[in-house]
């Protein structure tokens, strides 16, 4: 894949609006105000509900954002990640990368409110896209215009989730290639990774960076050889406190903030920690192994925060338009967990 040349990270508001408009225009029949006549006020209903819940449980923001991301990377933004498995097919939500997803119940509750107001009109895919945006705003992050008109998919396959969702062990070339296959560039990879500023990671997803590196012996008692790309002091602290199991080795279910100290604030902390070699996942550290990506990380980490907000908003608008189904494609599910008539 061709690498995007490094350039100063400067993007004016006018440029952001142009890019957002271009993204929306390229996404089939998506448009702003799609439900203006068929379900007026739907965005207010979604936004009010999401803001209320994020205020009470701020971690909901990261959950909804991750749910939207995992949905869009498999079959496009068609709410296929919300479908339950059936007797004949194992769905995306039951694939290993999705077993830690949260927020399904919240999406169902929002959808129920929308169905009460406008039965069979608003898709689950649009509800999820709006909810993810509103959750980021509710936690103090940027807003972006969400064009609507998505239709819901009727197929959900575990294997496709295994194939298409980025893995935390991927190298930079692997990540860049996967993003390119979705029509996203290196800079989209860098800016969308910024969502980790409000994320968490389970110890099992980076234990191989703490113990017995490289390869083998993960969790072995007394084997504290860490990935040299991870700050040694940080690695020792993770082994000693965050991921330590009572009987030795590591606690698989242990949870660590990806932006320690400000994981409930949408800010530049993730990028600044990354430059201190404190990115938890291999896929985080991988951003520093490519010259162009590293230059962008360094540029955005220097601030101001407004620049990151603009860049993140641009890439989120592009993500939300991936391979959408519109018009006669798909359906509008009445229950997000099952296809109509299922």
Automatic annotation (TrEMBL):
Keywords: Calcium, Disulfide bond, Glycoprotein, Heme, Hydrogen peroxide, Iron, Metal-binding, Oxidoreductase, Peroxidase, Secreted, Signal. It is an enzyme of class 1 (oxidoreductase). It is found in: Secreted. Its cofactor is heme b; Ca(2+). Residues 29-340 form the Plant heme peroxidase family profile domain. Ca(2+) 1 binds at residues 71, 74, 76, 78, 80, 92. Binds 1 heme b (iron(II)-protoporphyrin IX) group per subunit. GO terms for molecular function: heme binding; lactoperoxidase activity; metal ion binding; peroxidase activity. It catalyses: 2 a phenolic donor + H2O2 = 2 a phenolic radical donor + 2 H2O. Substrate binds at residue 166. Residues 1-21 form the signal peptide. The record marks 66 as: Transition state stabilizer. Gene3D superfamilies: 1.10.520.10, Peroxidase, domain 2 (1.10.420.10). GO terms for cellular component: extracellular region; plant-type cell wall. Ca(2+) 2 binds at residues 197, 259, 267. Belongs to the peroxidase family. Classical plant (class III) peroxidase subfamily. PANTHER family: PEROXIDASE, PTHR31517. Removal of H(2)O(2), oxidation of toxic reductants, biosynthesis and degradation of lignin, suberization, auxin catabolism, response to environmental stresses such as wounding, pathogen attack and oxidative stress. These functions might be dependent on each isozyme/isoform in each plant tissue. This is Peroxidase. The gene is LOC100192080.
């Amino acid at each position: 894949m061709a690498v995007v040349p490094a350039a100063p990270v400067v993007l004016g508001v006018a440029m952001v609006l142009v890019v957002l408009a271009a993204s929306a225009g390229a996404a089939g029949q998506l448009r702003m105000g799609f439900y203006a006549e068929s379900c007026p006020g739907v965005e207010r209903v979604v936004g009010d509900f999401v803001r209320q819940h994020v205020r009470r449980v701020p971690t909901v923001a990261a959950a909804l954002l991750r749910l939207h991301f995992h949905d869009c990377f498999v079959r496009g933004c068609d709410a296929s990640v919300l479908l339950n498995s059936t007797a004949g097919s194992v769905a995306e939500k039951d694939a290993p990368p999705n077993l830690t997803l949260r927020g399904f119940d919240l999406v169902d509750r929002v959808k129920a409110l929308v169905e009460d107001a406008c039965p069979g009109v608003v898709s689950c895919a649009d509800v999820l896209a709006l909810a993810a945006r509103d959750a980021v705003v509710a936690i103090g992050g940027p807003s972006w215009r969400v064009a609507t008109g998505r239709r819901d998919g009727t197929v959900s396959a575990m294997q496709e989730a295994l194939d298409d969702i980025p893995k935390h062990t991927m190298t930079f070339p692997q990540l860049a290639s996967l993003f390119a296959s979705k029509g996203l560039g290196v800079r989209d990879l860098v800016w969308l990774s910024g969502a980790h500023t409000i994320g968490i990671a389970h110890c099992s997803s980076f234990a191989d960076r703490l113990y017995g590196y490289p390869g083998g012996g993960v969790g072995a008692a007394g084997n504290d050889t860490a990935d040299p790309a991870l700050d040694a002091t940080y690695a020792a602290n993770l082994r000693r406190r965050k991921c330590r199991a009572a009987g030795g080795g590591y606690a698989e279910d242990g949870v660590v903030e990806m932006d320690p100290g400000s994981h409930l604030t949408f800010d530049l902390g993730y990028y600044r920690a990354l430059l201190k070699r404190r990115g938890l996942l291999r896929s985080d550290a991988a951003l520093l192994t490519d010259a162009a990506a590293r230059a962008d990380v360094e540029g955005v980490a220097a601030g101001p925060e407004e620049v990151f907000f603009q860049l993140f908003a641009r890439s989120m608008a592009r993500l939300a338009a991936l391979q959408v189904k519109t018009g006669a494609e798909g359906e509008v599910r009445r229950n997000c967990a099952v296809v109509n008539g299922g």
